[in-house]
Automatic annotation (TrEMBL):
This is Alpha/beta fold hydrolase. Keywords: Hydrolase, Signal. The keyword Signal applies. It comes from Knoellia koreensis. InterPro entries: AB_hydrolase_1, AB_hydrolase_fold. Residues 167-277 form the AB hydrolase-1 domain. The lineage of its organism: Bacteria, Bacillati, Actinomycetota, Actinomycetes, Micrococcales. It holds the Pfam family Abhydrolase_1. One of its GO terms (molecular function) is hydrolase activity. Residues 1-24 form the signal peptide.
Length: 390
């Protein structure tokens, strides 16, 4: 038996150990919950797109907007009006007064709706309608059979029947309209263009879990689009991908039995390594690095599928194409601005350095994410056309 003091000390130590264990368990549960929440945010489509750009004044050929990182970048862009009931195309900056927070830009055309002071939403795609209405090119509205059912797609036939097709793959949360900027130079090269949907797109079928899989399941829908093109007479395929569309293209090249039909690839601001992108966004949102790392680990664990809310595990390691550079087999033009704020350019530079035999990467700057065409459409068209013509 111990003295009363020793007994009290042992009881205090035991109570402290229990309390410490409880605190540790609470902290672990909190970390797990935070990591699962971040994973779900990354993988869940965001349907809410608020009108968040102030339209201050409207003149005959110009419009004055509030200054934001988007509205002060040079080039051509669009602006959705009145919750997408209208759309206007904007040109270069006419006047910038940062002290007053105002920027005046050219008005290149009102596509539909009414332009008036109020609020709108920046449209980096520039175009707001299908190819026949936006580009004046004959367009077929078709359905592509996929494992989930039919998915809507556009086909822009070459002026002369061609066995060379391009499949254009838009990015995460984007619309097919994102790809319209590439259609004209491809059409002028005599290439038939197919713009498919993939799972969880607005207006398309949802995947089994209703969540993005960062290219690890979406590639199957792109393969089905390639199969559609081949059944329609395509012999040679070009794949073009923007942002997550680039990640989807890379998975397609690695996994599809139709990859041998692909002759060249164009990637615009692609996700070369999802771990790098997720680390970047965790830092931007104040998510501690350990939570971000745990989030990525949870995505890839089969045992955590219900926690993350996915049907298939999302193994981020499979999306690291710097590590997998030796697997690449296709000529690739990689367009990625040094000033991309959303998908850091580092992995693209590393991939180009690792495979100079296959990857061409001209220097681009100034443009924000996926906006190289907007900043310099003439250069974008020329570089893509020259690459595909070789």
């Amino acid at each position: 038996m111990g003295t009363p003091q020793r007994v009290a000390a042992r009881k205090a130590a035991a109570a402290g150990a229990i309390a410490g264990g409880a605190l540790a368990a609470t902290a672990a549960a909190s970390s797990l919950g935070a990591a699962a929440y971040f994973a779900r945010r990354v993988l869940t489509p965001d349907r809410r797109r608020p009108d968040d750009t102030s339209i201050l004044t409207v003149e005959r050929d110009t419009v004055t907007l509030d200054v934001t990182p988007e509205t002060v970048v040079p080039g051509r862009y669009g602006l959705w009006l009145d919750r997408e009931h209208g759309h206007v195309r904007l040109g270069d900056i006419v006047d910038l007064d940062e002290s007053k927070g105002r920027v005046r830009r050219e008005v290149l055309g009102l596509d539909f709706g009414h332009l008036a002071p109020g609020f709108g939403r920046w449209n980096p795609y520039y175009y707001a309608s299908p190819p026949d209405r936006s580009l004046g090119l004959p367009t077929q509205y078709v359905d592509v059979d996929t494992e989930l059912g039919t998915m809507p797609a556009w086909v822009v036939p070459a002026a002369v029947p061609s066995d060379r097709w391009a499949v254009l793959v838009h990015g995460r949360g984007a619309r097919r309209h994102e790809t319209l900027r590439a259609i004209r130079p491809l059409h002028e090269l005599g290439i038939t263009v197919l713009v498919p949907s993939y799972r969880n797109d607005l207006g398309a079928r949802s995947g089994p879990d209703g969540r993005y899989n960062l290219g690890l399941s979406e590639w199957r829908d792109v393969e089905d689009a390639m199969r559609y093109a081949v059944s329609a007479g395509a012999r040679d395929l070009t794949l073009v991908g923007w942002s997550m569309g680039g990640a989807i293209v890379l998975q397609t090249l690695a996994r599809s039995h139709l990859a041998d039909r692909v002759t060249e690839v164009v990637l615009d601001a692609p996700v070369i390594d999802w771990a790098d992108v997720l680390t970047h966004h965790a830092a931007l949102n104040g998510v501690p690095a350990p939570i971000g790392g745990l989030s990525r680990a949870l995505m890839g664990r089969r045992s955590a599928r219900r926690l993350v809310g996915v049907h298939e595990a999302v193994d981020v390691a499979q999306t690291d194409w710097v590590a997998r550079a030796g697997e690449l087999r296709h000529r690739t033009l990689l367009i990625h601005s040094l000033d991309d704020e959303f998908v850091p350019v580092g992995p693209s530079l590393a991939l180009a350095a690792a495979r100079p035999d296959l990857v061409e990467m001209p220097r681009w700057d100034t443009a924000r994410h996926c906006k190289e065409w907007n900043v310099d459409a003439v250069r974008w068209d020329r570089e893509v056309s020259e690459f595909l013509a070789r």
